[in-house]
UniProtKB/TrEMBL annotation:
<feature type="transmembrane region" description="Helical">
    <location>
        <begin position="87"/>
        <end position="108"/>
    </location>
</feature>
<keyword id="KW-0812">Transmembrane</keyword>
<dbReference type="GO" id="GO:0048472">
    <property type="term" value="F:threonine-phosphate decarboxylase activity"/>
</dbReference>
<dbReference type="GO" id="GO:0015420">
    <property type="term" value="F:ABC-type vitamin B12 transporter activity"/>
</dbReference>
<comment type="similarity">
    <text>Belongs to the CobD/CbiB family.</text>
</comment>
<comment type="pathway">
    <text>Cofactor biosynthesis; adenosylcobalamin biosynthesis.</text>
</comment>
<dbReference type="GO" id="GO:0009236">
    <property type="term" value="P:cobalamin biosynthetic process"/>
</dbReference>
<keyword id="KW-1003">Cell membrane</keyword>
<comment type="function">
    <text>Converts cobyric acid to cobinamide by the addition of aminopropanol on the F carboxylic group.</text>
</comment>
<protein>
    <recommendedName>
        <fullName>Cobalamin biosynthesis protein CobD</fullName>
    </recommendedName>
</protein>
<dbReference type="GO" id="GO:0005886">
    <property type="term" value="C:plasma membrane"/>
</dbReference>
<feature type="compositionally biased region" description="Basic residues">
    <location>
        <begin position="1"/>
        <end position="11"/>
    </location>
</feature>
<feature type="transmembrane region" description="Helical">
    <location>
        <begin position="323"/>
        <end position="340"/>
    </location>
</feature>
<keyword id="KW-0169">Cobalamin biosynthesis</keyword>
<dbReference type="InterPro" id="IPR004485">
    <property type="entry name" value="Cobalamin_biosynth_CobD/CbiB"/>
</dbReference>
<keyword id="KW-1133">Transmembrane helix</keyword>
<feature type="transmembrane region" description="Helical">
    <location>
        <begin position="237"/>
        <end position="256"/>
    </location>
</feature>
Length: 341
């Protein structure tokens, strides 16, 4: 499982006097001793481009990731507030959100160029591709047992009960769901709420992955966190399905068929949001996802996404990877249109 427009000129919409950089980007030369202001709308567009480029080149760092601070704060909040059940989850949410968002926002006030660095940490598309890709590489080169071990790091399913098709389904569903959680969601909240909005979204996502389970010791504690996560992903998840549909014709699929499958099957998913990118991926590739899934607590009977379509195959990963990358470009282009125009 488991946040007054710049003046325009004809050379470059949103540009300043140089015609090259947004007036409020914080990048134009200023008189000595003047303060460096936070970026305007156009500057945020440049920061977003830089963050996406860093994510593409580096992926998530193996050490020193600041999002680990959210996990540390979340564990502390659980120890202190767990006896309060749902109220404790809510208090942990505000405790973690206030501290982390305050840290992020305070840091960029003095050093605006920290903004693209923070945003880079909040994006996770490249690392997602790597992790899912390792499942398929293991399946292709080392066999089913090795692929199950790789998948174990990504899902909470009983992977030892999955056959090859089940492993492929689990990996593709992870790719689709986290296309929203790791890219479209942060992007949407950066457009809507700037860096504080993205930081808060990341807090909720992280806490939901820790405590947002409808069973076990976190059931009551994680309930308000899971509900807020559902709310924050309500729009991004549906937009992710649209972006996947826009990318489908470039990957041998159909825009209208992708949307048809998403609209038909996504509401049957137990999550109000995860079904949208998963069903869209199924429709775009012409495959079936979902179905019965083994969890530690037993088998869960889920509706099929792409019901009646063929079972996924090993070679579908290359198409799914191309599809999500193109969909990410559509999402990025949409965000940049908002920022620059």
């Amino acid at each position: 499982m488991r946040h007054p427009p710049p003046q325009r000129n004809r050379r470059f919409p949103g540009a300043g006097p140089s015609g090259l950089l947004p007036r409020d980007s914080g990048l134009l030369l200023r008189p000595p001793g003047s303060s460096l202001s936070l970026p305007g709308v156009g500057g945020r567009g440049l920061y977003l481009l830089l963050a996406v480029l860093l994510d593409r080149l580096l992926g998530d760092p193996s050490f020193g990731h600041p999002v680990r601070l959210i996990g540390f704060l979340g564990e502390a909040g659980f120890r202190v507030f767990k006896s309060l059940r749902a109220l404790g989850g809510l208090l942990t949410l505000f405790f973690c959100g206030g501290l982390f968002v305050g840290l992020v926002w305070g840091s960029v006030k003095g050093v605006p160029w920290l903004e693209p660095l923070w945003l880079f940490y909040f994006l996770a598309l490249t690392s997602l591709e790597r992790e899912v890709g390792q499942v398929f590489e293991a399946l292709k080169g080392e066999g089913l047992s090795a692929a199950r071990k790789r998948l174990r790091y990504l899902v909470s399913r009983r992977v030892e009960l999955l056959d090859e098709t089940g492993v492929i389904r689990g990996a593709l569903e992870t790719l689709a769901e986290n296309f929203n959680d790791g890219f479209c969601g942060p992007l949407f909240w950066y457009v809507v709420g700037g860096l504080p909005g993205t930081a808060f979204y990341k807090v909720v996502e992280t806490l939901d992955s820790m405590f947002g389970y409808p069973y076990g010791p976190y059931r009551a504690f994680g309930w308000p966190i899971a509900r807020l996560d559902d709310l924050l992903n309500l729009v991004p998840a549906r937009l992710s399905a649209v972006f996947l549909a826009l990318a489908a014709p470039f990957c041998g699929g159909s825009f209208f068929e992708t949307l048809r499958v998403a609209l038909r099957d996504a509401p049957a998913h137990p999550s109000p949001n995860a079904g949208w990118p998963e069903a869209a991926l199924a429709g775009a590739l012409g495959i079936s996802l979902g179905g019965p899934i083994p969890y530690p607590r037993g088998w869960e009977e889920r509706a099929w996404l792409g019901e009646g379509l063929r079972a996924p195959r090993l070679e579908d990963y290359s198409c799914a990877l191309r599809l999500t990358r193109l969909a990410a470009l559509w999402a990025l282009a949409t965000a940049l249109l908002v920022f620059f125009f």
